[in-house]
Amino acid sequence: MKPAGGEVAEKAKDSTRSTSVKKAAAAESSRSTRRRVAATTQNPAWLAPTAVVLLIVGLAYLVTYYISAGQLPLPIGDWNLAAGFGVLMVGGGMLMFWK
């Protein structure tokens, strides 16, 4: 007999669904035991302060370069921009590992 009103028979709704509660619980248990969990280690004590110092040093380097009209901190021309942004990127990269 065909279900009325376009309804789908209960079996046809989800053929992969288990009708046994014990089977469903075992399947859920096996799925949850295979999950990877992040390590619960603490950050090294030096990580955050070092990253913040590098961010400040990189910013100070760039500000010094702009204020001195390109004469300071080193006589390497526009490569000072690369050096300043490089220090900033190292500090920002360190913050990616901070938990």
UniProtKB/TrEMBL annotation:
Keywords: Cell cycle, Cell division, Cell membrane, Membrane, Transmembrane, Transmembrane helix. It is found in: Cell membrane. GO terms for biological process: cell division. Its main location: membrane. One of its GO terms (cellular component) is plasma membrane. InterPro entries: CrgA (IPR009619). Residues 1-40 are annotated as: Disordered. Residues 18-30 have a biased composition (Low complexity). The keyword Repeat does not apply. It is a multi-pass membrane protein. The chain crosses the membrane at residues 45-67, 79-98. Pfam families: CrgA. Belongs to the CrgA family. Involved in cell division. This is Cell division protein CrgA. It comes from Brachybacterium vulturis.
